[in-house]
UniProtKB/TrEMBL annotation:
Assembly description: Homodimer.
InterPro entries membership: ArgE/DapE_CS, Bact_exopeptidase_dim_dom, DapE_proteobac, Peptidase_M20, Peptidase_M20_dimer, Peptidase_M20A
Protein's UniProt name: Succinyl-diaminopimelate desuccinylase
Organism this protein belongs to: Nitratireductor aquimarinus
Keyword Zinc: yes
Purpose of the protein: Catalyzes the hydrolysis of N-succinyl-L,L-diaminopimelic acid (SDAP), forming succinate and LL-2,6-diaminopimelate (DAP), an intermediate involved in the bacterial biosynthesis of lysine and meso-diaminopimelic acid, an essential component of bacterial cell walls.
Length: 395
């Protein structure tokens, strides 16, 4: 069997599988073929949950004695949108001007194609690594993400799998390959604050209690002081008000209720719990102040509801993992990458409960867009970086 050492050939095969979440589209089968050529064992657990589609996942492993490295990612892709708007069809892997076009080219079939090629080159040159390499690949990252990475990690851990480090191959570079490694993420917390007033006629405000000024006081208290200045590794925590809702169509009625939803991206100054306590304190103080409410005697009557589960903040403190990957990037592209905790959440937030995790992949500029594409040169560069990492990490 020929080894899958060419990242562009690997990627073309994967792009030609139309694996729009939750459809497997043969993408995992194609990957399974590549991993079999590398002598990996491959399992394909399917996870189900009421109200969500069943999802196929893949766990492949090249087992050996020594440390265990996990490569994590997903073969599902977002829908192509208007296919006629694409310069080249989204599932054809057409090449033009040194770029390969297709949905998933950078997010993140490209990352998988490069890691497979890197491992194939490693095996070809050095034989099996002195340790284990596993592939934890889900088909449910771009969808509800319920039957994907979380369950796959639990499934593998129940079978006794233990990992020493993980690389997630999501696109992390803003402009050029080698710009940025992600070594953690901010946490995320959402809440809804509702102010209860008393409905009435605008001409007789003393008989009513307008909730809008009260809500303004509360939002001001959330926004006026920064939560922190940022830390060595993180940007300052930031609160955004995402919607303010009163829903009152009449101009002569004081509404009964007003609410607003906010989301905070927070750094390692806080835990979700300490941040919730800080928000309660700010709201309680602002409710008592009555600055915008004339001579109201009662404090603002409000409720707060936390929406969804907060995502915790995390920072990878495995110096060897971060240093080895940074040095691999530098040796191939000639410059050290920025170590960043910016951006949204990713599956790394689940993996960090099992082992230290970093994220490094392609340039993210065209992800989820029409004409998603990757430079063939970037595929080769990323493969070389992953190969160098494998050589150094298993040395
Ligand atoms: Zn992705």
């Amino acid at each position: 069997m020929t080894l899958p050492t060419d990242p562009a050939a690997n990627l073309a095969e994967l792009i030609r599988c139309p694996s729009v979440t939750p459809v497997e589209g043969q993408a995992l089968s194609v990957l399974q073929g590549m991993l079999k050529a590398l002598d990996c064992t491959v399992e394909r657990p399917v996870f189900s949950e009421d109200g969500t589609p069943d999802i196929e996942n893949l766990y492949g492993k090249l087992a050996g004695d020594g440390p265990h490295l996990m490569f994590a990612g997903h073969t599902d892709v977002v829908p192509p949108g208007d296919e006629a708007a694409w310069k080249h069809p989204p599932f054809a892997a057409a090449i033009a001007d040194g770029q390969m076009y297709g949905r998933g080219a950078v997010d993140m079939k490209g990352g998988i194609a490069c890691f497979v090629a890197a491992l194939a080159r490693y095996v070809k040159t050095h034989g099996k690594p002195k340790g284990s390499v596993s592939f934890l690949i889900t088909g449910d990252e771009e969808g509800p993400a319920i039957n994907g990475t979380v369950k796959l990690l639990e499934w593998a851990a129940e079978r006794g799998e233990k990992w020493d480090a993980s690389i997630v191959g999501e696109p992390t570079n803003p402009d050029a390959l080698g710009d940025m490694i992600k070594i953690g993420r901010r946490g995320s917390l959402s809440g809804r604050v509702t102010v209860n007033g008393r409905q009435g006629h605008v001409a007789y405000p003393h008989r009513a209690d307008n909730p809008v000024p009260g809500l303004m006081q509360l939002l001001e208290a959330l926004l006026e002081q920064p939560f922190d200045e940022g830390t060595k590794d993180f940007q300052p925590s930031n609160l955004e008000v995402t919607t303010v809702d009163v829903g009152n169509k009449a101009t002569n009625v004081i509404p009964a209720r007003a609410s607003a939803v906010f989301n905070i991206r927070f750094n390692d100054t806080w835990s979700a719990e300490s941040l919730q306590a800080e928000i309660h304190n700010r709201l309680d103080r602002a409710a008592a102040a009555n600055r915008l409410r004339g001579n109201a005697e009662e404090p603002v009557d409000f409720d707060i509801e936390w929406l969804g589960r907060p995502s915790p903040v995390f920072l990878t403190r495995d110096d060897r993992l971060v240093a080895t990957l940074s040095a691999s990037v530098e040796s191939v592209v000639g410059a050290r990458p920025e170590l960043s905790t910016s951006g949204g959440t990713s599956d790394a937030r689940f993996i960090k409960d099992y082992c230290p995790v970093v994220e490094f992949g392609l340039v993210g500029q065209t992800m989820h867009m029409v004409d998603e594409r990757v430079a063939l040169a970037d595929l080769e560069t990323l493969t070389q970086i992953y190969l160098r990492f494998l050589e150094d990490w298993f040395a």
